[in-house]
Batch of 3 targets.
Target 1
Amino acid sequence: MAGPETAQRASGPPGTSAEAVVEAVGLGKRYGDVTAVREVSFTIRRGEIFAFLGPNGAGKTTTVKILCTLARPTAGWASVAGFDVERQPTAVRRRIGLVFQEQTLDDQLTAEQNLRFHAVLYHVPHSQVAKRIDEVLRLVELDERRHDLVSTFSGGMARRLEIARGMLHTPAVLFLDEPTIGLDPQTRTVMWEDVLRLRRQKQMTIFLTTHYMDEAEYADRIAIIDHGAVVATGTPDELKRRVGEDTVDLATADNTGVTARLAAAGYQVSEREEAVVVFTRDGESHVPQLIELAGSAVRSVHVHRPSLDDVFLHYTGRQIREEHPSHTLPARMRAHTARRR
Ligand SMILES: Nc1ncnc2c1ncn2[C@@H]1O[C@H](COP(=O)(O)OP(=O)(O)OP(=O)(O)O)[C@@H](O)[C@H]1O
């Protein structure tokens, strides 16, 4: 039998983006009569931001707890960084960082003292502690507050310090369970800037749970979880493409003529008061051809893709409870999302 520090199973060629850092196969958890997680399977590759998107009670936290060895599965199997979560929990714990919904910092200690305490718990080599603390505090832009008591921090600063702490021992995977719950939109933006910086600079693998659609948009891939089951997995764009067509709105000087020309070319098209609306898959790729067919009269073009709300509705038959509808998302955050796709 493999020793506790011997990876039992690795998949994908090491050192490539295809390397699986987290694997779950038929994972399940029952609490008495309640099935919190039912036969969930997924793979997370190195460097990915992977989001579990689902409403309260869907089974997100339970899945994270199993992967972090804080709860035992009642069915299936999972590995983190190549180690079996049930048989090699100590090896798994050494390789993960965790940020839970509840704050777990000692607010009577300074930021730096909290980090030093964590460094001892996680056996960060003494010679590296100061360097690592400097680095993670810079990553979350709290280096100037390092000597302040955590009790003087805002909720957002404390959450960011928790992320820094989760990173301190250079984990293979950082788990963020509803990381922005209770934070105001501006603070959520700043926290997301931290997370994206982490990914960019450290190629960190991040497992995120959320019930916010706008937050899930940041993920490379999303698994939609409902009543304990994963009902769909894919990139945000893939999921949107699966549920329906894009619409391309063309505002032109001659909507009637353009509608006729596009229909003759085989497009499904509808003339509205202000624009000609074309229904098509992968709308962006059709724009050059649509403009060419329309002639010189095009004034503006807008491509609309189904939203993650549409995706969630499609797969679950209902809407996720939204505390932060995407129209309240700060402009800076929306711009960032747009740039990534
Ligand atoms: N220790 C427990 N004992 C009994 N039932 C539990 C326990 N933990 C979770 N559950 C139940 O399992 C289901 C999934 O809960 P879980 O906390 O994983 O959901 P979630 O998607 O993370 O939602 P939330 O964000 O509200 O925590 C819920 O029905 C919950 O009541």
Target 2
Amino acid sequence: METFFLRGSSLSSIPSSSLNHRSTFRSNNRRPCLRAQQSDGSATDIPPGEFKVRNSQEEIAATQGIRIRRRPPTGPPLHYVGPFEFRLQNEGNTPRNILEEIVWNKDTEVAQMRGKKPLYTLKKAVDMAPPPRDFIAALKASYLRTEMPALIAEVKKASPSRGVLREDFDPVEIAKAYEKGGAACLSVLTDAKYFQGSFENLEAIRNAGVTCPILCKEFIVDAWQLYYARAKGADAVLLIAAILPDLDIKYMAKICKLIGLTPLVEVHDENEMDRVLEIDGIQLIGINNRNLETFEVDISNTKKLLEGERGEKIKQKDIIVVGESGLCTPADVAYVQEAGVKAILVGESIVKQKDPTTGIAELFGKDISAA
Ligand SMILES: O=P(O)(O)OC[C@@H](O)[C@@H](O)c1c[nH]c2ccccc12
């Protein structure tokens, strides 16, 4: 059985050894020492080497400017309730912001799901899944057809920053309305806790005959999730540079290629953009105008990150840039198009409309449907 704290990341699985039940911490002068409690009540120290592996992963992330910690540094977070658990709040088990909270939750959630569906069963499901469709080709075809940014329309019920966006939420109906309105691709939120999404929604849309390729909108922290998304019918996945170190992005992009998923790598500042531009083979970059740590939205972020040398490099590498979040009006669409994006990712402003099909026409200021 694995302990919460020792579970490996996508890159290096730390052997779970014979540790049982729960982990507690002793502090010494320099850094906390991890102890694991056995079922008979005795305690074992975890060899310093193992502790260090995890620590050095955080250190590598920090050198790349990543502020989000993959796991609580002083043990399970407050929301983790095991047998006889109680926990005192301290800096090391309290997330610093909403993105960190989501990541910590996701880490626990994925560990539980992985336990129920280990990779070898998932790989079989991947083989049975409906074949992947070309996400990038769909974006390019739409751009050529409309001469406006291709729309990735988001099926989103709620968000932590905006609450519930739509009460009468029928994901398949919304997806069909988007397709009718001229969306090139769809984005389907699958996180349940913060966005009220689900993989059932994604699967239902995929099985309802909607032909737009589908982006699985998740917080990916473990390569297992890539296989899961593909097994459920996703054609693309989101990789968030604010939470994934370079090596994870490279590794996950390779797995995506292997199983036919298109990775959309999301950045929200210059540092993240520069990191991603150094990674070979990334064809799709999303610029999020919403800071996931503070929820601030500023669409000039898209323009800022495409100026000067960065814009040149993007052109040279033939990367498609997606402008994400906070786009509501034809003027917003024109602004990000002028900045250089060939696609946009839009949720709130269209999902809120009574008829999402006309919501799309209003967003673009004209009918962009193929009909
Ligand atoms: O609803 P908006 O403001 O149009 O934004 C859509 C999309 O960009 C946003 O949902 C998003 C962008 N990146 C994310 C990462 C996780 C969850 C959600 C997101």
Target 3
Amino acid sequence: MQIDPWPAPRATAPVVGTVTMPGSKSVTNRALILAALASGPSVLRAPLRSRDSELMVGGLRALGVEVTGDDAWHVTPNPFRGPATVDCGLAGTVMRFLPPAAVLADGQVTLDGDPRARERPMGRLIDALRGLGAEIADDGRAALPFTVAGTGALPGGSVTIDASASSQFVSGLLLSGARYDKGVVVHHDGEPVPSLPHIDMTVAMLRDAGVTVDDSEANTWRVEPGPIAPLDLAIEPDLSNAAPFLAAALATGGRVTVTGWPARTTQPGDALRDLFTRMGALVTLDEHGLTVAAGDRLTGLDADLHDVGELTPVLAALAALAETPSRLRGVAHLRGHETDRLAALATELNNLGGAVTETEDGLAIEPRPLRGGVFGSYEDHRMAQAGVLIGLAVDGVAVENVATTGKTMPTFTTVWTELVSPR
Ligand SMILES: O=C(O)C1=C[C@@H](OP(=O)(O)O)[C@@H](O)[C@H](O)C1
Ligand SMILES: C=C(OP(=O)(O)O)C(=O)O
């Protein structure tokens, strides 16, 4: 247990070091769904072990899937069966990826989650599943909790969905679509879909598993019906969780390397290379990994983060430490994340003396000297990371419920402390 609020370590010298990230949440939870729907047993090597991935494992086990192992997960699929109950916690990947799979169960599956999970956008996905032939009882709430009444198969076919609130609606439908009788064709109709690299990740992982996917037309994805091949997959390190560690170099005039950075990846965290460069960092990708070193000055950032929204909390914290103003745009959908991240970032940074304004689709951040205080984390792992980063550069910052980082990285405070205050 961590002391709550957790006194964030203050850097006494430039942070210099090397860190290794646990596996990617997004890759692990996609791989689990694919393995559960595959035509034979799969092996997932170096999976992320965290609240979000353990919830996915728990949900799949409730449906009858066998998952064993430790450093590698062995997944043995079985036909999904109900009755079952699934706890989605606060995991977007569980609440959006599991229902499209659960509709294939023979029997009833009830899904629920944390109180905040009941407020996260879900209704469009429920409607889309109904359009594909699923029977779902949600008491008219268009949100968690709801119950899927499956018959062991789903007709599938063509469906139109407004996925402007979350790319995960599309990814969820595509991940299971090959197992629907007619496959699935998903058309998006609405404001632009956020986090497109995450949909590219879904498509790439489906193709690697032998599924035919056509994404040649904008806002339309076609998944042919057919088997999903068993996986033997080494999970990439989580590049979004690398953000605070790399930012530690920039906040202190130091240099940090993240090992095992993939040369090619669909993870949106890869955009950090460009984003940190634009803030004045010196960035090198070589056989040692990704190294980010502070340049002469830390400048603010004017960027559209629509594709990489999950990087926003850490970038906003770093921007609050920069010498020039920042504008973070294109991330209105963050109001539906673990918390309303735009409101939470403005509130918490301003509590420490910052000058942060919420805009219609993002944040405007003016440089200001910050002071100590308690930084609220709102059960949001990335808010906690943002607060810890501020505490590295500002005296007397304590982060409330830092344990919430366990959503995607239970080792966060240990790895952080070892990096920033080496013995
Ligand atoms: O598919 C995924 O793994 C994710 C998609 C994104 O969701 P949104 O499109 O809802 O932002 C991202 O923010 C989330 O952290 C993970
Ligand atoms: C938005 C995020 O998570 P989730 O998968 O719960 O949507 C995130 O990790 O930044």
